[in-house]
Amino acid sequence: MSNLQKTVAEAFQLMADGLESGKLVPAPRIALTGMGSEHGETNAIEAALAAQERGVHVVYIGSQEVEGLECVHVDDDEAGHAKMVELLDAHEIDGAVTMHFPFPIGVSTVGRVVTPARGREMLLATTTGTSSADLVEGMILNAVYGVIAAKASGMSDPSVGILNVNGARQCEMALKQLADGGYPLRFAESSRADGGCVLRGNDVLQATADVLVCDSLTGNVLTKMLSSCATGGSFEAVGSGYGPGIGRGYDKLVLIVSRASGAPVIANALVYAGDLVRNHVFDVVEQELAAADAAGLQDILTARREASKPAATAEEVSAPPKEPVPSGIPGIDVMDLEDAVKVLWREKVYAESGMGCTGPIVLTSEANHERSIELLRKAGYVA
User: Fold this and answer.
1) Would you tell me the crossing angle of helices 297-308 and 135-151 to the nearest 10 degrees?
2) What value does the CA radius of gyration of the chain take, rounded to a whole number of Å?
3) HSE, side-chain direction, 13 A CA sphere, residue 123
4) One domain for residues 137 and 229
5) Residue where a domain stops, chosen among 284, 303, 322
């Protein structure tokens, strides 16, 4: 969708909201802190004016007064952030876009990017903050946060894929368990021949999923690369930034952009914030977390915490007699690979660890292949 089409669509949405309610719907009031950008305040002001043309009332916090903008004067970046928090706490603004913010553990941001292969938007869950100190638990929560951001952006049935990083397979098993428990998750299907909801680099470029689940550090790098791949990295030109902080019980709508974000990205972030306000994002947070809890989310997270505890004693297991192992079993996280091999050794099945083109694999003989899959499934290493 072109920028002109998006602007027209947003204007019609505002009119439709007003017709439905029978009264004029006020534009969302979103603050923007403009100081601290590597591109200067002029860049932020350009973004604020552009966002106002797309249906957002911007409260600009900075050192300059600008005709056509509601401005709050501050002397420096630190004072700007203090004023932003003050306005949020007083409910004088509906949300804010800023360049850094200290989210508590349990809250992380869902970015919105545009991928180059198809020009499609995709949500990255997540890009800053930390949903959990445990990698896999964090990715499970990131998936739910991504669905929340997607639905609060206007998607009714977003597809969810998991980036093929450490923890992906454990996350996949947990999310499928959550779906089996009744939480409505629609899994994306990889564009590669082997399919599945664990996605690869090709899928990132094509936006195979509406929501791409990963850890925050990986999501942060992806956001930077996708937003500035055509500019050499110094100017983020595409997408909507790093997104809103989402977490259980968290009620401040704060969206993150980078000091390298250009005016187009900051303007998109302001519009993203407006979308979330219009779609009552915090109601969506409560609804989705309640639905996930009803489907067993807390039990799944508890089981994950127990599984991640170090064993009291490390049992020594010797390898059975060596034999040819031409048959590979994929779907195991690299951090679990050696433990998975020892599961088979314990049952007198010879196995080795390896790395295939799609990631880590356990190698067995063809005769032991099916039995090995069943043993690893029972031990929780494969879905």
Assistant:
1) 160
2) 23
3) 29
4) yes
5) 303
Spatial CA neighbour of 114 closest among 191, 256, 227: 227
Total domain count for the chain? 2
Q: Are residues 283 and 339 in the same domain?
A: no
Euclidean distance between the first and final Cα of the chain, in Å?
A: 38
Cis peptide before 33, with omega less than 30 degrees from 0? no
Catalytic residue among 171, 197, 214, 357: 357
What are the tens digits of pLDDT across the range 226-257?
999 999 999 999 999 999 999 999 999 999 99
Between the CA of residue 65 and those of 26, 30, 40, 267, 333, what are the distances in Å? 23, 17, 14, 18, 54
Rounded to an integer, what distance in angstroms lies between the CA atom of residue 63 and that of residue 167? 45
**Cross-strand pairs, 129:** 108
In sequence order, what are the residues at sequence separation of 6 or more whose Cβ sits closer than 8 angstroms to the Cβ of residue 176? Answer: 187, 383
Query: Is 383 part of any domain?
Result: no
Does the annotation count 71 as an active-site position?
Answer: no
Q: Rounded to whole angstroms, how far apart are CA atoms 320 and 199?
A: 35
The answer on 351 and 247 residing in a single domain is no
What phi and psi values does residue 352 have, to the nearest 5 degrees?
-135, 155
Which residue range forms the structural domain that includes residue 235?
3-303
359-364 and 327-329 as β-strands: parallel, antiparallel, unpaired?
Answer: antiparallel
51 and 83 in a common domain:
yes
Q: Are residues 332 and 184 in the same domain?
A: no
Q: In angstroms, rounded to a whole number, what is the distance separating the alpha carbons of residues 254 and 282?
A: 12
Same-domain status, 249 and 358 = no
User: What integer pLDDT is reported at residue 335 of this predicted model?
Assistant: 73
How far apart, in whole angstroms, are the C-alpha atoms of residue 61 and residue 71? 6
Rounded Cα distance, 108 and 128, in Å: 6
Distance CA 87, CA 57 (A): 14
Model confidence over 269-293: pLDDT tens digits?
Answer: 999 999 999 999 999 999 999 999 9
pLDDT of 333: 77
Domain closes at, from 303, 326, 343: 303
